[in-house]
Write a structure and sequence with these properties.
- Belongs to the cytochrome P450 family.
- By secondary structure, the protein is α+β, with helices and mostly antiparallel strands.
- It has one domain: Cytochrome p450 (Orthogonal Bundle), CATH 1.10.630.10.
- The protein contains 20 helices and eleven strands.
Length: about 500
């Protein structure tokens, strides 16, 4: 007994010392390395000078490592550029990294965070996401309501391209795919299609611009008055009022008692009909905010992926030949490809996956914000402390081009996904998660992927594609500009030629 007491008397102070020393060491951990900043503005000048944020962050990761600290005005920021660190942020410590920064433009347009994509983490956010998952993005709804619309819009797009091909006209492929994507989304969301030049398209462009524009108040709160001086707040308020009126008109149309009972239920109908079954008080502002999510996410992502797929295929004629041979061999003289056929086109599906690896629709996932302090690192010798309220950028651009994850990462090689068919879009493989991972993962993955696969299969089956006269393959550029999605700086214009099945 005496020996036990002596042992405890020795062990207790030692354990206390080690515990305190561990806490001290944890508190003394540094922030990840990063480029030096300037007084007051931090690293903002580097973002201002860079042609695109994702390329700047990729360059910084090569110099400083997979975790890079930045100071954006008064806001601490972290750039995550490896699959190992992405797993730490999006899975292992997801509870800490699940919030979103309350950015001025996004908060205003989302009715102070009543939707899913841009809102800070909260119990209310969980309720709204649950409602969207159970009522709006169900497999049954996708089959009954979305599928016929998608197939109709694909065939309408093919009809327009056939007219262009018959007249030997050049086609701006992004404009073509944007019309296709927005027609699906608007018909599914509120039951109508808007022609090119309609008020809807102008309003959507302005909303997307405001979501990605710079507001001084987001990074320098004490200088928020500058946003009023420059007219940014007036522009935001004006666009919000216009958007709110647009949505209210749509809701009023759906509430009319004489509205046709045979009309297929769209998203507005579903929300209004299930208003009382929600676990929260679903208001008209919720309806408008959720519509915003669906339209912004659904339109931009689909058109972006399709445009980059055509860019990659035109730059890689061997891949183009192989995927067209598959589509035409499997489909024969069927004439049109429907959703059931896609399962029989593994190489086409690999082309879509490879497109989103090399040209991710969101080169940086929507920024997150830490809800507490965190300790992460590549190994025990390189552990770092991340402060609360740090804005976190996960670089899909860097992860998709990391030689640690991919052989010859800068080459467009769909075969890599045939060799690794287990890699999917579900966010379980942290070398590939173009729709995010964890509790903030995009809930409309299946909708978005099928929009892309069906459209690409049909345009490759129906047409051969040519560059403008005098343009060579090596002239096809890959320059990008900043935005919510990965946008080409220069339009990709191609000439479709009708393929005649022998």
């Amino acid at each position: 007994m005496d020996l036990l007491i002596i042992a405890l008397l020795i062990a207790f102070p030692l354990a206390l010392y080690l515990s305190l020393n561990h806490i001290k060491k944890k508190d003394d951990l540094p922030s990840p390395p990063g480029p030096p900043g300037l007084p007051l503005i931090g690293n903002m000048h580097q973002l201002y000078k860079a042609p695109s944020n994702h390329e700047l962050f990729w360059k910084l990761s090569k110099k400083y490592g997979s975790l890079v600290t930045l100071h954006l005005g008064s806001v601490p920021a972290l750039v995550v550029s490896s699959s190992k660190m992405a797993k730490q942020v999006l899975k292992t410590q997801d509870a800490i990294y699940s919030s979103k920064p309350a950015m001025t433009g996004q908060q205003k347009m989302s009715y102070n965070g009543l939707e899913v994509g841009f809102s800070p983490y909260s119990e209310h956010w969980r309720d709204v996401r649950k409602f969207c998952t159970l009522e709006l993005f169900t497999p049954k709804r996708a089959q009954m309501s979305v599928r016929p619309v998608r197939e109709q819009e694909v065939y309408r797009m093919i009809g327009g391209l056939t007219e262009a091909a018959s007249a030997s006209k050049m086609v701006d492929v992004h404009r073509c795919f944007s019309d296709y994507a927005s027609s699906i989304i608007t018909r599914v969301a509120f039951g109508k299609r808007y022609g090119e030049g309609a008020k809807f398209h102008r309003l959507l462009s302005e909303i997307e611009a405001l979501f990605s524009n710079f507001f001084v108040s987001d990074y320098f709160p004490m200088f928020g008055w500058i946003d009023k001086l420059t007219g940014m707040m007036a522009r935001l308020d004006r666009t919000f009022v216009e958007m709110d009126m647009f949505y209210q008109e749509l809701i009023d149309e759906h509430l009319k008692p004489d509205r046709s009972a045979s009309t297929t239920d769209d998203v507005i109908d579903v929300m209004l009909n299930n208003k009382n079954s929600a676990s929260f008080a679903l208001t008209m502002n919720h309806v408008k905010a959720i519509l915003l999510d669906i339209i912004v996410a659904g339109t931009g992502t689909t058109a972006t992926v399709l445009t980059w797929a055509m860019t990659a295929l035109m730059r890689n004629p061997g891949v183009m030949k192989k995927v067209q041979e598959e589509v035409r061999r499997v489909m024969g003289k069927k004439g049109k490809i429907d959703e059931d056929d896609i399962q029989n086109l593994p190489y086409l599906r690999a082309v879509v996956k490879e497109t989103m690896r090399l040209y991710p629709p969101g080169p940086l996932l929507l920024p997150r914000k830490t809800m507490g302090s965190s300790v992460i690192g590549e190994d025990e010798d390189h552990m770092y402390k991340i402060k609360p309220k740090t804005v976190v950028f996960v670089s899909m651009w860097a992860i998709g081009r990391d030689p640690e994850n991919w052989k010859e990462p800068l080459e467009f090689m769909p075969e890599r996904f045939l060799e690794r068919p287990e890699i999917d879009y579900k966010g379980q493989h942290f070398e590939y998660f173009p729709f995010g991972a964890g509790r903030r993962q995009c809930p409309g993955i299946n909708l978005g992927v099928m929009n892309v696969e069906l459209a690409l299969a049909n345009v490759l089956y129906t047409f051969d594609w040519e560059l403008p006269d005098g343009m060579r393959i090596e002239d096809i550029d890959e320059e990008t500009v900043n935005g919510l999605t990965l946008q080409r700086k220069n339009a990709l214009c191609l000439r479709p030629k009708i393929y005649v099945c022998p």
